[in-house]
Amino acid sequence: MSDLSAGFSEPPRRTKVPKFRWIAIIGVPLAAILFQVYVPRFFTYLAYLEMPLLVTVYYSLRRRSPPFGVLLGMCIGLAQDSLSNHPLGMFGIVKTLVGYFAASVSQRFEGSSDLLRLVLAFFFFFFHQFFYWVLSRALLGEAVSFEPVQTLVLAVLNAAVAVPLFRILDKLDVTD
Amino acid sequence: MDLILNRYRNLTALVAAILVQLVLLAYQVKSNQEVRLIRVWAVTAVTPLARLLESGRSGSVNFFKDYFVLLDVREQNKRLQSDLNRVQLENQVLRTELDTAERGKALSVFQEQSGMKTVAARIIGNSPGSNGHVVLIDRGTGSGIQPGMAVITPDGIVGKIVSSYPTASNLLLVTDPAFAAGVLSQKNRVHGTLKGTGNSNAIVDYVQNEQTVEIGEWFYTAGDDRIFPKGLLAGTVTAVRPGRTVKDIFLSPSGLQHGLEDVLVILEGDHKPIPDLPPPNQSVHLQPLPPAEGGTGLAGDPLNTANNTSSNTTKNSGGAQTDLDREVERTRRIGEDQKHVFGERGRGAPDFNKVPDPGASRPAATAPPAQTSSPVTPSATQPRP
Question: Taking CB atoms and an 8 Å limit, are A38 and B50 in contact across chains?
Fold first, then answer.
């Protein structure tokens, strides 16, 4: 009985939080932004690949720290905003929310599962696009259209890319 | 308050981050001004990497493009080189064919104009062990060639046949030491014997020191060797010096000046007089034929007439118009004119002092048309005896 009460009272066993080098934490988001800025010049169909979002989701899931997710999402979002022609903060706010929610989810679920990564990438892409559209209409008053079907298809594509990409990024884990 | 912040630390961070960005956004929208500093940081951070990426990409693209372009250029270069080689080869072949055709044409013209019965032959090789002064020609006894026959080109004498076989013959060149032919100088009429020396020159032997021979003087065949008809070019004197008993006269054989490829073998020779003027040009130049005027040609042109006559003569008489031939023809015409039958007993001899009428013995069948004014020599219309 005491073992049973002890099992309920103890917090759930958690796997170790992976560690990444700072160069990886800074370099990978920078490379993702660079990818989004540079590669579509030559391969236009790759413009639909939201690499900064995927990187935000990945690091937030792996670090399992909402403040880290918030900070990372904000930085990546603001960097994207800086390279765009719209006011700073639009991508920042959206990615801040994505980082926070991704990190929050990782506190409940194991973030190394491919299926969870697939679902979360799909969900966060849709959420990202939808929330961006909401902010554009609400804060900036822009008449931006939202195509749900197209967004769902792109979400699937981004989720499909996210799984192998996350596998590659797992190699940057320096946890002993 | 601290407890609340600690308890809702994650949410607090989220709200703070969003609030900051909302304020930032509101400021930009309200003031219509950009937060330049953040953009400068972002652009400064991204630009070097983008530049590096672009230079790497362009470098790689250019490298591969240049590589494949160079590959193509290499292939193209190979192809062009092959084409060039082929065209050069074709050009060489055509040039050789043209030379051969020109030589053949000149030989053909000379053959017609010389009035001698000749056979054209081609040098096909050197006879082994002859040091290159005996060559093999592609005509033999099958073409009527016999040992001792003279061989010439339009430029002069070449040599003589030393042995003949059914399909080929050996030709002894004038440069061979075993070669000898009687020659006569054009200007001073000095007789001598042309001999080979074993190199590219020949000598004229047996000319006395007292006799005059000049450098550059032409020597013609004398016809006394019974091989070469009289009047054929032998060569020009390149050096003369007095010797112990006879002069040392060095001659450059004219027949070998332009190489040796096609020759004429004289089957039946015709002695010609030594010309008073030196040959202006040894190569036979052919002008194109004049345009036909009403199908009659240049009937009134004496030169043309003479050429036609010569051509007809050559054709009809087989090209053998020797002094003996002419004498036999004259005798026959005198006999016909005086109704004399040679060989009959008791008829005596015709009067050879009477000059026969040139037109009297002309057969009616071979008489030229009335409108043709060109004279036709009897030898051109009568078969050879």
Answer: yes
CB B161 within 8 A of CB B208: no
Q: Which residues pair with B89 in a beta bridge?
A: none
Spatial distance between the Cα atoms of B194 and B182, rounded to a whole number of angstroms: 6
Whole-model pTM over 0.90: no
Report the pLDDT value the prediction gives residue A58, as an integer from 0 to 100: 93
Task: Say if B286 is an interface residue toward chain A (CB within 8 Å).
Answer: no
Dihedral class, residue B156 (left if φ above 0, else alpha if ψ from -120 to 50, else beta): left
Listed in sequence order, the residues at least 6 apart from A2 whose beta carbon sits closer than 8 Å to its beta carbon are none
> Given the DSSP bridges, would you call strands B262-268 and B150-153 parallel, antiparallel or unpaired?
antiparallel
Give one word for B19, left, alpha or beta, with left for phi > 0 and alpha for psi -120 to 50: alpha
Residues 143-172 of A with CB under 8 A from B: none
Q: Report the residue count for chain A.
A: 176
Amino acid at B54: E
CA distance B319 to B112: 8
Compute the count of residue pairs across chains A and B with CB atoms less than 8 Å apart: 88
List the single best residue of A33, A68, A81 to mutate versus B (max B Cβ within 10 A).
Answer: A81
pLDDT digits (tens, 9 = 90+) for B311-335: 444 444 444 456 777 777 878 888 8
Nearest Cα neighbor of B9 from A86, A25, A100 is A100
Average pLDDT, chain A: 85
CA dist A127 and A121 (Å) reads 10
pLDDT-derived band of residue B281, with 50, 70 and 90 as boundaries? low
Q: Which residue has the higher pLDDT, A110 or B80?
A: B80
Q: Which two tokens mark A15? A: 């796997």
User: Which residues of chain B make contact with A104, given a CB cutoff of 8 A?
Assistant: 10
Structure tokens at B136: 């093999």
Residue corresponding to tokens 């053959």: B111
Helices (H) and strands (E) in chain B, counts: 6, 12
Nearest CA in chain A to B22: A89
Residues of A in contact with B25 (CB under 8 A): 87-90, 93, 139
CA distances B228 to A147, B139, B150, Å, are 111, 19, 6
* CB neighbour list of residue A130: distance below 8 Å, 6 or more residues apart: A146, A151
Closest Cβ opposite residue A83 in set B18, B34, B43? B43
Beta-bridge partner residues of B194: B181, B204
Determine the Cα–Cα distance for residues B237 and B240; give it in Å rounded to an integer: 7
In the prediction, which pLDDT does B287 show? 63
Long-range (24+ apart) CB contacts under 8 A made by B300-307 are B300/B373, B305/B374, B305/B375
Nearest-10 crossing angle of helices A22-38, B36-114: 60
